[in-house]
Amino acid sequence: MFYAETKGELARMMPDSECCIISELSAIARSCGRLEMRQCDGESLPVFEISTENAAFARKIMAFVRNVFRFKPKVRFTSRKRGLPGNKYTVELPCDADTLRMLQDIGVISQKRGGVSLRNGIPWSLLSKQCCLRSYLRGVFLARGYVQNPEKEYHMEVMTDSLTHAEGIVRIAESFDVMPRIASRKKGHMVYVKGGDDVAQLLRVMGAHSAVLTLESVRVLRSVRGDVNRVVNCETANLTKAVDAGLAQVTAIRKIDEIIGLGSLSPGLQEIARLRLANPEMTLRELGRMLSPPISKSAVNHRMRRLIQTAERLSGNVG
Ligand SMILES: [Zn+2]
Fold first, then answer.
1. Residue 120: its pLDDT value, please?
2. How far is ligand 1, taken at its centre, from the CA of residue 187, in Å?
3. Cβ(155)–Cβ(42) under 8 Å?
């Protein structure tokens, strides 16, 4: 859900300036475009295709090409079998000079000896402005990105087939104070971040403001939940310790009573011993307050230690 909403929000977002459209289209074409050379009227020209399951994203690509490069791509629609998700929209850029010019302008191809191929790295010359760097990140995320539901885990990633491209994406993210890592796999290179701060910052950089709000509210809930758990655990631990200590004191006092009688203790010790026997569950502070005049927690603690030492000495003598 979170992923679909984030992707939808970014797909519907139209950059204001042409520089940003070019950057975003460049990222999209580099990340998920497929280039094929075909012979047209004796000339070798590229056919370029971008496939996606997301209708809003397909519409965005169409709008980019139409508004900036002034030609209209075709869209092929392939529907899956009934009941299965995953209709596919393929934006098809025809085999002509317009397509070649567009691919050159967005910096995704290199031409060598008449052959055209996809470039490995990032077209830095297009990305001199911060707005364009943001747009580039948005493009790679829309094309091959994923963000995990923050209630499960803070994780965001983009895939690319080129290590140089992956390293370029890391450099762009670093310019916004996020330090992603790269994991290379058989199926490609994954650039990813973990941690709520980094995921939130990247969403913010890409302009996914609703997603940032959702993420932040989940974070607040998660941290409140964590705090409550910590407090409960901590209180349980303290309580257990207090109960154990209280029981040990009661046992010691009973032993003294059995062997020498409580009456043989000094008045101060006698007083606290009787109070403890009558109130095994009370804290030391509460016991101290019941005496008149009241005494401090540490004074009660001191007397309890003397009672326990006495009991130990007595059982040593007896046993
Ligand atoms: Zn720009």
1. 84
2. 31
3. no
